[in-house]
C-alpha cells in the first residue's frame, strides 16, 4: 500500500544529478526513512546520470512510500535504447561501458528492481525495504545469554575529564579518580599527555594533543594509572567554548570493554535475508559490483560514491607518496580535475599544507580557515569532511567530500565516511601497488630502450633529437634541451619539441625571449615558473593590444599567443644534465595549462636525464676527436697536386673507418727544382697519433731532403735514421719514393726506390704489365740500410701505377685481390688517361667485396700521353 508520494523532473544538465540526489534524500528523511537514504541516493544518482548525461534527456523521479520501505522510479525519454536481457547468466551491462552501471548497482543494493518500457518512456525502478528493527531504536544487537555479556564493575563508571586550550587538565570527576587511582589534586594543571599511553590501538597515526584540537574525536588509547598499569580506555572528545570564548575539550572515558556505553554506533548497510542479489561484501556495497579493475576507474568510482553518500557537491581522493610526506591528487568529481590531477601537497601541518590527512577532520566553513584544504582553494567549496585511508596503520591516502554551503557536515558524517574508507583502503592500496609495479616494469623497459638508442649514435644533433623524442609525449607534453659548451658559457637553447608540431615555433620563440634556467648541479627535478609567467604576460599584452584596436578585427596573433600560453601554462620542471661532474645542459619538461607531473614520471625523467647527459657528453667528445682527426688528416696530405709538363698525374685517396682515423697511408707529389719532381706513396704501420707523427715526419722530411739535393737512397737512409730516433714511438714504414724528369721529346725518366712497399706496375701500350722496381728493406727497422735506386723510362702511352697495400690486400672471405688481380685489372686500362686508370682500379677494388674497405687506400697513376698527329 502506497502511503505517500513525491515527484520531480530534472533538465538534461550535469547539475541535475546533485539536485535529484538532494530531492530523494530530503524526501526520505522527511518520511523518517533515514536507514535507506544512502542506498537510495547512490542508486538515484546513477540512474539520473544515465538519463541526463548519457541519454541526454530529462529525468522524472518518483518516490513512493510504503509501509515496509520505499520505491523510487527514474524515467527518461529515450525508449530506443536497448532492452536489457534478464535471464540466467545474462550480462545486462558491462563495467567497461559508460552507461548501464546503474543496473548493476540496483542488483547489488536494491531489495527488488526492474525496467519498464512504454512507447515514450523508459523507467527503471528499485525497492528498498526497511530493516526489521524495534520501533524507535537506532541500532540493536542480538539477545545474548547472560554468561556471554561483558564483565563490568558493580557500577559502570564514566570518567569526565576537561582539558584547557594548553592541554592541561582542569576537570577530574570522582569516576576518573576511581578508574585511574589519581586524586584530582594530583592531576589538575598537568598535561593529559603526561598520563596517556598513545596510541593504544595500532594504526593511529597522530597524538593525543592533535586529537584534543579536533571538534570531535572518538577512539581508543590508554591511561597510565597511579599503580603504573596502562588502563585501555574508549574515549569520546567534544571541543567546546565557554561564555568568554575560551576553548576546552571535554573527554568521556570508559574502560575499553565497556565502550558500548559511549561509542557512536556505525551504520551498517541494511540486509535483506530474502534477497539473493544483495552483496554481503561491504566493499562491493559501497563501490558497486563488479568493481573496476584498473586503479583510475576504482578511484573515480570511489569519489563518486563518497559524494553521493554524503550528498556533496564534490569529492576527491589523494594517494600518499612512498615516503608519506606528500599526497598526490588522483581522482576528483565536481572539481576541475584537469587542473588538480597529480597536484601534490605536503602532509605536515602548516599554512597551505594538508595537516588533517592522518585522521578524520570536519571543516564547517573554509572561509574561516583559509588554506586548510589547499585542493579546494578557489573552488567555491565551504564545508568539507576528510578521512584517512590506512593499511596496517600506514597512511596510504585521504578521501574527502565537500559542499558549497557551510555547516553541511558533522562528526557523524566523518564516521560514516571513515567506515567506507576503511572498507576500500586495502583494495585501493592493492590496485596502487599493481599500477606501481606495472609502471616500474614499463619504466625499466623504457630506460633499457632509451639507453640502446642513445648508445647507438655519437652524433651530437641526433643525440639531442633522441632526448626530446623519448620524453615527448611519453613523459611530457613538450621538451626543451639547453646545452652549455663550457663553464664560462651561458646555456644555449639547442632543441625544442612539442607533441603538436604546430606549437613548436611559438614555444621556441617564447623560450628564446626568457633567460634560461640556472645550471644547478643538484640532482632531481625542480619547478621552473618563468615560461608560464612569460607566456601569461605575453598573452595579456596581446589581448590588450588587439582589443584596443576596435577598428580592426582580432588577428590570428592573439590566437597563437594564447595557444603558446596554454602550452606552457602547466607545471614546468628542469633536470640538470650532469656528466663527468660538470653540468653540460638542462632538460626542461612541461605540461599544458594547470597540469602536473606525477612523482613516478619525475623519477623516470631523472633516470633518463643521467643517461642522456652521458650520451650527450660522449657525442661532444667524439665530435671534438673527429674534428681533430680530420684536421690532422688534411694536414698530413698535400694541399694539391702540381702540374707536371708532359705527364698526367692522378691520385685517389680513401681513408677507411668512421671519423677517418689519422695515420695510415699517405702520398705526395712535389717540385724539387726546375724540371724535376718528387713523388712518394707510403704506409705507416698502425693508426692513431703515433702513426700520424711518423706520417708527418716522413712527408715533410722527404720534401726537405730532396730539395737539399740528396738522391733517392740518401733521402730514405736519412729518413730511416729519423724514424729510429723516435725510439718507442717509432713505427716501421713502407715507402715508394721516386724522382721524375719529363723529357722534351716525349716520355719521362724516373728513378725510384721501393723500400718494402708494393712494387709499382708499368702498363705498356701493347697491354703488357710488369713490375717497375725491385723490393728493398722497409724503413724504421734496421739501422744500416744500403738502398739503391732504379731507373725507369716511360714512353708515350705508358702508365706507372703505384698503390698501397689497402688495394692489393682487399679481401672477400678467403679470397684476396693480390698482385695478380691488380695486374689483371691494369691490363684492361690500355689507352685510358691517368684519371680513368685510377678510377677503374678503385672501382675494381670496391666491387671485389660487398663489405666496406677496412684499410686506407692510396692510388697514384702517372701516364705519358701520346703525341697528337695533325693529318
From TrEMBL:
Residues 154-190 form the PAS domain. CDD domains: HATPase_RsbW-like, PAS. Keywords: Hydrolase. Signal peptide: none annotated. Pfam families: GAF_2, GAF_3, HATPase_c_2, PAS_4, SpoIIE. SMART domains: GAF (SM00065), PAS (SM00091), PP2C_SIG (SM00331). InterPro entries: Bact_Sigma-Reg, GAF, GAF-like_dom_sf, HATPase_C_sf, HATPase_dom, PAS, PAS-like_dom_sf, PAS_4. NCBIfam families: sensory_box. PANTHER family: STAGE II SPORULATION PROTEIN E (PTHR43156:SF2), STAGE II SPORULATION PROTEIN E-RELATED (PTHR43156). This is SpoIIE family protein phosphatase. The lineage of its organism: Bacteria, Bacillati, Actinomycetota, Actinomycetes, Kitasatosporales.
